[in-house]
């Protein structure tokens, strides 16, 4: 490949504004926001339209140059960072920021890949609708990245993953052809469901350029509670009883260990413990309703009262105003930041069937503490999805590098426990580069074989985000 | 192939009870319940376990014999009927009727492919849960068929299609290997989503033998209303306003033209018009709630009252007791049967974006009546899914055969209107044999090309339900 001829060909398509090749300007595209992954690239190309993306992919295909699609670069597994060869081209979708259509009667919105999740949420709110995907990075992650990684977050319990929110896709295929699957249909049984193949494929099968997404009725009442529990088993009992009572009003159920809350109270200035006593576990519960003035407080109090009698709940408080709601969510959302103040930590994003969460926590805690005494286990997550962020901080005062050297052994214990309980080693973060090897070890070989066969079929040259997923 | 050696090999796997080769006994497997499609077969094999299915597929693969998977044989497109060569083997899943596991804490049920949908619903109800898929054939259709065709029905509005209710699958691949994807996980981002490829593939990529399905909280309050409307446009306005008000309480919204209701009143003995006046359109609305004594009547009356003022509603009545609820649903469910009494009818199962339903009806009615004066258009369906059953009955007193000869021209008008509005020519019934040619004409050629590439990858010998889908 001639780098100059490639640059020239791409510039003809996207114009000078669509090319980044100055090393300093390229830097932000070559490492993730946490600076955990770094790569090199021949250049960064920023097409502004689907047709430009198609032309770019055709040119790279003709030159046999590998492409790394990139959105907001907020992923946690290095999926949008090129390798260090310097031969790959980063294709940033961040100029494709159009909201193409809002169809309120169809309850859909059609957006381009580079639209920020938060802008999408705001566009929905402006027409009195809800776009429910909600996650920490929403101010900087893009819809394209959300689709490519099948993003999750705190509202999956009620509204599903990004996959469940998509009705149609527009995708540039590895040979540069455009598949226009932008249908806003809730029922379409005319063959294989191609969109689900591209969603969650982390850019390894094609480049998602736009999508038709579902909208939901605006929420008009919310109740939020902070609840203390004796153990994780009680959290599973509690969510079952609350869901039976409240049905779809249950839109949030976030579990946190005392260790998680301790770190937040220590390091996040604005947070204070809602209870005088220390408790082993907590959940943040959110009920919501499309009706204004829905009697959600009464409903939740009834549910918590019954759970208190059965011993599943030790104490509970309902937020009395918006400031209190914000304060409770700040506790939950502060965990990741707070943990950073305690030195290096090893992060895991696992899922198991909801019924097996207590067993997972008991077994894994015991195995870890036996082998690595003093480590601090920061377990929290989305109980209704069976999804735990099971992070491990070094023992207080211990050596950082010594702890990091144990990373593989610690993860091994966690992933083995996950696999033994029929779980997933990556619930919502994807594989990227970070979990490629773990996926190879813990995934069914037949499933990996099928995935590879699909990859070869759709991307026979292996030019779409090579080195990721597989 | 030697038919005797095949028979012998299969009998070794499934035993004499698992083989049907007597022509008389085979008959019910060789035509669908409406007797619209007929085929022939070398034999019918009825394995009782996944391992037996795998062994059967291996034997057929070795003999290069094509397989036609079959469930309850209630499909409307001939997808489970063999061709007339007499060389294909029908693989009936109806002996695989085990409910393998119910995990109430995980809100999941694991069932085999041959379980009847109604038995699945009953098993869910027995543990105080709802399995929401609901359709006319539920007493005889099987879960495997529901998955293979991505079945829809009346509850899709709230709970989604069968695809949306499945968390994991067990599939016997075309070479006889078993893919165990029976995971009960709500989040799993470790690669391509294989289950969505098999769901809706109509047995053309493998044989679904079991699935992990989602359960929902039991419903404890229901309100049902029968509402008269001036036009289809008002139905779209009405569903938008009711959904905004009621959110997920809205679990049914079925549109019916006066023509549909007329046929029911004429031919279904137990039905009578709830209103003294004749109106052009009707909807049946259902609200439901997990709470006992939820004030659904008040809510629906408020919504309908506001719609009455805006002219979207002409009249409305709420069912006062269970008998009235049943009577209203009998009107909706009687349409298909009633239409049979009016001579031959051409059935279509289309979808368009909800917002385009009025345009679809207006355009198509006009085009049809202009070209085929006197035909009776029986339009009804699931407005919230954009899904209309748009059927056409012959003009009264006209010749049956002359009408049937116009079938292609009538369908052409309907499918062209569907395509022009970015719709689907098969919303919930699938392709099977019935819509193969139409799919070839109305589907994006690139999408068909991708589908064929996937088919070749997973079933290179073309032994899985050949002649269907493509």
Largest interface: A-B, 89 and 91 residues
Count of the domains of chain A:
4
Oligomer: homodimer
Arithmetic mean pLDDT of chain A: 96
CATH class of the largest domain in chain A: Alpha Beta
How many extended strands of chain A?
Answer: 19
**Structural classification of chain A:** alpha+beta
Cα-to-Cα separation, first versus last residue of chain A: 25 Å
The residue ranges of chain A in which pLDDT falls below 50 over 5 or more consecutive positions are: none
Helix content of chain A: 25-40%
Largest sheet of chain A: 8 strands, antiparallel
Q: What is the CA-based Rg of chain A, rounded?
A: 23 Å
CATH architectural category of the largest domain in chain A: 2-Layer Sandwich
Protein name (chains A, B): FAD-binding oxidoreductase
Domain FAD-binding PCMH-type (chains A, B): 37-218
GO molecular function, one term (chains A, B): FAD binding
Cofactor (chains A, B): FAD
Tell me what you see in this structure.
Two copies of one chain form a homodimer. With 470 residues, the first copy, chain A, is α+β, with helices and mostly antiparallel strands. Chain A has four domains: 3-92, 2-Layer Sandwich (Uridine Diphospho-n-acetylenolpyruvylglucosamine Reductase, domain 2); 99-217, Uridine Diphospho-n-acetylenolpyruvylglucosamine Reductase, domain 3 (2-Layer Sandwich); 221-337, 2-Layer Sandwich (Alpha-Beta Plaits); 342-427, Alpha-Beta Plaits (2-Layer Sandwich), CATH 3.30.70. Helices cover 36% and strands 20% of the residues of chain A. Chain A is built from 18 helices and 19 strands. Chain A has helices at 3-14, 23-26, 50-62, 117-126, 143-148, 156-159, 162-165, 195-198, 232-246, 258-267, 296-309, 322-333, 335-340, 357-371, 400-405, 407-420, 436-442, 445-458; strands spanning 19-20, 43-45, 67-70, 89-92, 99-103, 108-112, 129-130, 166-172, 178-181, 207-214, 216-217, 221-229, 250-257, 281-289, 315-318, 345-346, 349-351, 376-382, 387-393. In chain A, strands 12, 13, 14, 15, 16, 17, 18 and 19 form an eight-stranded antiparallel β-sheet that branches. Chain A has a five-stranded antiparallel β-sheet with strand order 5-6-10-8-9. In chain A, a hairpin with a 5-residue loop joins strand 8 (166-172) and strand 9. Chain A starts with a helix and ends in a 12-residue tail after the last helix. The mean pLDDT of chain A is 96. Chains A, B: This is FAD-binding oxidoreductase. Chains A, B: GO terms for molecular function: catalytic activity; FAD binding. Chains A, B: Its cofactor is FAD. Chains A, B: Keywords: FAD, Flavoprotein.
């Amino acid at each position: 490949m001639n780098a100059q001829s490639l640059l020239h060909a791409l510039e003809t398509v996207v114009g000078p504004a669509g090319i980044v090749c100055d090393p300093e300007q390229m830097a932000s595209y070559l490492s993730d926001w946490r600076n955990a992954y770094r790569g090199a690239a021949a250049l960064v190309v920023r097409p502004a339209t689907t047709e430009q993306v198609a032309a770019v992919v055709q040119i790279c295909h003709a030159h046999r140059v590998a492409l790394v699609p990139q959105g907001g670069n907020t992923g946690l597994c290095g999926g949008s960072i090129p390798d260090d060869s310097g031969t790959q081209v980063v294709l940033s979708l961040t100029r494709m920021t159009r909201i193409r259509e809002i169809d309120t009667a169809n309850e859909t919105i059609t957006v381009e890949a580079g639209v920020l999740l938060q802008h999408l949420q705001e566009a929905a709110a402006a027409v009195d609708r809800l776009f429910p995907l909600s996650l920490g990075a929403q101010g900087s992650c893009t819809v394209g990245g959300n689709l490519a990684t099948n993003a999750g977050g705190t509202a999956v319990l009620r509204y599903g993953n990004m996959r469940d929110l998509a009705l149609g896709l527009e995708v540039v295929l590895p040979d540069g052809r455009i598949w226009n699957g932008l249908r806003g249909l809730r029922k379409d049984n005319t063959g294989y469901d191609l969109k689900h193949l591209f969603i969650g494929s982390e850019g390894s099968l094609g480049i998602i350029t736009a999508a038709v997404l579902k909208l939901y009725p605006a929420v008009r009442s919310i109740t939020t509670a902070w609840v203390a529990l004796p153990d994780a088993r009680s959290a599973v009992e509690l969510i079952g009883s609350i869901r039976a009572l409240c049905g779809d009003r249950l839109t949030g159920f976030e579990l946190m260990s005392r260790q998680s809350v301790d770190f937040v109270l220590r390091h996040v200035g604005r947070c204070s413990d809602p209870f005088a006593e220390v408790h082993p576990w907590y959940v943040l519960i959110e009920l919501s309703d499309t009706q204004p003035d829905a009697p959600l407080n009464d409903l939740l109090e009834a549910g918590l009262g019954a759970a208190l009698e059965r011993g599943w709940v030790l104490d509970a408080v309902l937020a009395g105003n918006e400031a209190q709601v914000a304060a409770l969510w700040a506790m939950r959302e502060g965990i990741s930041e707070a943990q950073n103040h305690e030195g290096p930590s090893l992060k895991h994003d696992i899922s198991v069937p909801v019924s097996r969460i207590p067993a997972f926590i008991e077994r894994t805690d015991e195995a870890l503490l036996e082998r690595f005494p003093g480590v601090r286990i920061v377990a929290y997550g989305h109980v209704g999805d069976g999804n735990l962020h099971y992070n491990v901080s070094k023992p207080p005062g211990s050596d950082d590098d010594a702890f990091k050297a144990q990373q593989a052994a610690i993860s091994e214990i966690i992933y083995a426990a996950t696999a033994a309980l029929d779980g997933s080693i990556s619930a919502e973060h994807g594989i990227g580069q970070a979990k490629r090897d773990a996926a190879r070890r813990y995934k069914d070989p037949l499933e990996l074989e099928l995935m590879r066969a699909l990859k070869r079929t759709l991307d026979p040259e292996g030019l779409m985000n090579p080195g990721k997923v597989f």
